[in-house]
Specification:
Two copies of one chain form a homodimer.
Chain A: H1 2-19, H2 27-33, H3 35-64, E1 67-73, E2 78-82, H4 87-115, H5 121-154, H6 169-202
Antiparallel strand pairs in A: 1-2
Helix pairs in contact in A: 1-2, 3-4, 3-6, 4-5, 5-6
GO cellular component, one term (chains A, B): plasma membrane
Domain Casparian strip membrane protein (chains A, B): 39-187
Subunit structure (chains A, B): Homodimer and heterodimers.
């Protein structure tokens, strides 16, 4: 640990020079002192990305397999509900693979951030910008689907839209589950942005 | 400008010492070299915040004043549409003041970032985290309202929900305008996050 001691001495020297008004050196000693803390953030970022991938996958599978046919039919048509009957759910199923693809592609960058910590400013900046875009994208589809699910459950007397969940119970349950999984993905993306911001600050 | 020259000399000295393996000092010289560029970012951040405030205000006023009564009525009731008939639009009107309040409160922090550039890491970090939360919040309400507006325009034959925009044309136009204004706010928040990330990187 003689290297660590040498660094500590340099830090002290720099800190005293800062008091004389050379503040720009502030970032450098902090980075060395909190090396372990930063590696922890990078590893947590990686774990969070894997969890977000699982949540997004759950959301798509749940939504993609919603297909309920009622056991009775009239003379003219059979009652059937599937995700592709409602545009909001279709966008949900189309957008989720984009989010999953991004998460898979971002994992190598996350590993780069763990391995090459002090030099990983570029990848970190790229990740924070794309993560924020993903927050917006995931929230948009999850929230549009949530609005339609709410309508399917409760209906709307003013617009004369009737609730359809009394008939299509399985359909509604699955769709609600997918919306919840999607909001969990949103929360994970929010944490990823916060982590990246904290990590970026020390560079 | 003799102070600037002194700093430049120090920078060169540090850069040469970096080549000997003291990479952590990398952040410090960059910050001085790109001082003007960073002040530009801070000012653009301030302008963008003001524009987002205007966009959010437009969205709320447009949505809050949607109230259309049809010029005919039956024996039993008069046809009337207002934003508070649909929960998605109600959330929109409730959430927008929160966004506006945050924008107003964040403007002093933005000014702090302009004035005290090299030391403004704390405010910058606070702004990037809260901006990201606002991206999620604004997108959520805008997108839920968009899903309902789409339904009001097009209806849904599978769920037997009829389009109501043939009757309530004014209502639908105003609501669509509010949704567009809200998505403009989202785009501005996205830019704010990107700007903060770039500014944070140099610290």
């Amino acid at each position: 640990m003689e290297k660590g001691n040498a660094t500590a001495t340099i830090n002290i020297a720099e800190t005293s020079s800062e008091r004389k008004g050379k503040a720009p050196l502030l970032a450098a000693p902090m980075e060395h002192a909190k090396g372990g803390y930063k590696r922890g953030i990078a590893i947590f970022d990686f774990v969070l990305r894997l969890s977000a991938l699982v949540a997004a996958l759950t959301a798509t599978i749940t939504m993609g397999t919603t297909d309920q046919t009622l056991p009775f039919f009239t003379q003219f048509f059979q009652f059937q509900a599937s995700y592709d009957d409602l545009p909001a759910f279709e966008y949900f199923v189309i957008t989720n693979p984009i989010v999953r693809g991004y998460l898979v592609l971002s994992i190598p960058f996350s590993i780069v951030c763990i391995v090459r910590r002090p030099h990983a400013v570029g990848p970190r900046l790229l990740l924070i910008i794309l993560d924020t875009v993903m927050v917006a994208l995931t929230t948009a589809v999850a929230s549009a689907a949530a609005a339609i699910v709410y309508l399917a459950h409760n209906g709307n007397p003013s617009a004369n839209w009737l609730a359809i969940c009394q008939q299509f119970t399985d359909f509604c349950q699955k769709v609600s589950g997918a919306v919840v999984a999607s909001f969990i993905t949103v929360v994970m993306f929010l944490f990823l942005v916060v982590l990246s911001a904290i990590a970026l600050r020390r560079n």
